[in-house]
Amino acid sequence: MKLSNVKAIVAKAMTVGMLAGAFVLAAPTKAQAQGIGVRVQVGYPPYGYSRDYYDRLRWERERRDAFLRQQAWERQQAWLRHNAWERDHRYGYGYRY
Questions:
Q1: Is the keyword Signal assigned to this protein (predicted)?
Q2: Residues of the chain predicted below pLDDT 50
Q3: Sequence-ordered list of residues with C-beta below 8 angstroms from that of 88, at least 6 positions apart, any chain
């Protein structure tokens, strides 16, 4: 391949690239708002809380009640342990009477 042929191929490629770039820049830009939206509503909008709202409230109440039950059980166990220790060490001795 002669050097003149390579130069001709490169010149053609550069020309095609320049023309393609000019065409892209000269083309009009696409409009952003070409869609049309239509909304139809049948009936009245719901005025109330959804089922998920009440489910979440019920779940929160159950979670809070379970936590309070667990705390009450812990307090009772601590009191029973303390009472047993007091009963065992009532007179300063480490054994029962």
A1: yes
A2: none
A3: 94, 95, 96
Assess contact for 91 and 97: CB atoms under 8 A.
yes
Identity of residue 96: R
Tens of pLDDT along 43-69?
Answer: 776 676 677 888 899 999 999 999 999
Provide the residue type at 85 as one letter. Answer: W
- Helix-strand-coil percent breakdown of the chain, rounded to 5? 65, 0, 35
Q: How many residues does the chain have?
A: 97
Answer yes or no: pTM beyond 0.70. Answer: no
